[in-house]
Amino acid sequence: MAKTVIDVLEATAHHYGQTPAVVELVGGRWTTKNWSDHRDEIFLAARGLIHLGVQAGDGVVIMGYNCPQWFVADIAAIAVGAVPTGIYTTSTVDQTRYIADHCAATVAVLEDASYLAKLDRENLPRLQHVVLMKGTAEDGSAHSWENLLEFGATVPESDLRDRVDALDPEDLCTLIYTSGTTGSPKGVMLSHTNLVWTAGQVIELHGCETGDSIVSYLPLSHIAEQIVSLHGPMSRGCTTWFAESVEKLPDALRACRPQLFLGVPRVWEKIQAKMQAVGAQAPPLRRRIAAWARRVGLAGGYADQQGASRPLLYGLANRLVFSKVRKQLGLDRARICVTSAAPISKATLEFFLSLGIPVLEVYGMSECSGPATFSVPGHYITGSAGRSLPDCELSLAEDGEVLIRGPHVFLGYYKNEEATRETLDDEGWIHSGDIGTLDGNGYLWITDRKKELLITAGGKNVAPQPLEANLKGIPGVAQAVVLGDRQKYIAALLVLDEEMIPDLAMRLGSAAHDLDSANACAKFRNHVQKGVDELNSHLAHYETIKRFEFLDSPLTVETSELTPTMKLKRRVIAERRSDAIGRLYE
Question: Mind giving me the DSSP string for 503-516?
Fold first, then answer.
């Protein structure tokens, strides 16, 4: 029988009531709330929303860093028939206003009073109340979290039960706003069935069990984090630990030691850079042992994929190196390590594979509730996005565009029928906008975004994303933007990794110590040029990168050059970095 999100919550609280649901750091100590108490707080907060006048169909926007209150606010809104919508903490006032207005929000739930300035309440006439997850507003312009729960205690439980009983599995359940590489963000409408089915698949396929732990740290405005750390654990009685910040993720990983860990490519790249910097400081003998172990590990990783036997000394390498690395990272219990949301370089994948940590790729999008494909130990290929979820279909259009169909496909875009028709056809296929190939065993390989293909002056089509991923595989390169549309040749903008500069400078014999000095250093340029030459040796002539330019500052969300999910905003980059681009094509 089809279920609603609230059906899942109630079943989990009934069967696994004493199992830890959420764990957060409070006053320097990790504190736990079990599923029974977590459910009770959700229902009390839901009654609080009823007290504030929230009606079925109203929007409830949530803005703040990951914490138990974020989860409670989201599921409480669903329980009363409202539609929760996460807003990225990096959003501007204009972006926040647009989403809050577009989803017809009557209540905003914010992390603390510092977020009030982003609301522009004067231009949000439908917004009636603001609730703070933490702290209070000195001017009385917002209710505290304690106020919300106190309000809930005054509302009869039967009022909430009437709302819950009226929910239908096919109802609109939540809105996920696309991060908007072009134009205004679109509200992706996901139903209860979309979320419940997808979360159950993710947990089942990855072998998660009751009591397993997951760390929440990526933006909860993104569907991937909601599925992995909110809806997934709720479907099986798993435990979500909250990192205090992205910067403190390593501390949370070591404390939690999760069984499942999702990292976007930039997270894996940062871990790699840190490990390489530390490794370079090790004594010569230890470096030689590590290099030997990594050769054995890489051979073992590829042997696993081919169904062959691992090298004879793999076990020794594991005892001497791999097990210690996994423990230091907090990944010693991890059965599954996943990457998603953006392309990742093969060099980064092979770095972790060589340490006995296969990082498995998942492909998907908000419009299919997160994942369309999955990879698991025993069924993965380094560089492939994996195979389609069970009961889902993947197909390729004549031009190679990836098409997706299944129970996870969205209801459409909120208040935007034209965009819905462009993406979702009459037969239920999502037209993803991604170009890919499918091999004979059903493994999907993503090659680029359809709208981002570069067409050179010579009429050649060049996919920038694979080139960018490989450029980031050059040690010391943090970001890459490949250019060449309507130009005579392909070129690239590169940003050096500030964290790696000191270590790399030592290895190169350079006096560089920061981004400016590294950009100006001939030894750094020669090092990167060698990496570009190596990449070019594997490319067709028209794809090769003829020139590159170092940028004097990183691409960031704050400069609007990246979306909150770290995708490149190419039009903005072209405008803001026009001087550097001009030098490439002088």
Answer: HHHHHHT----SHH
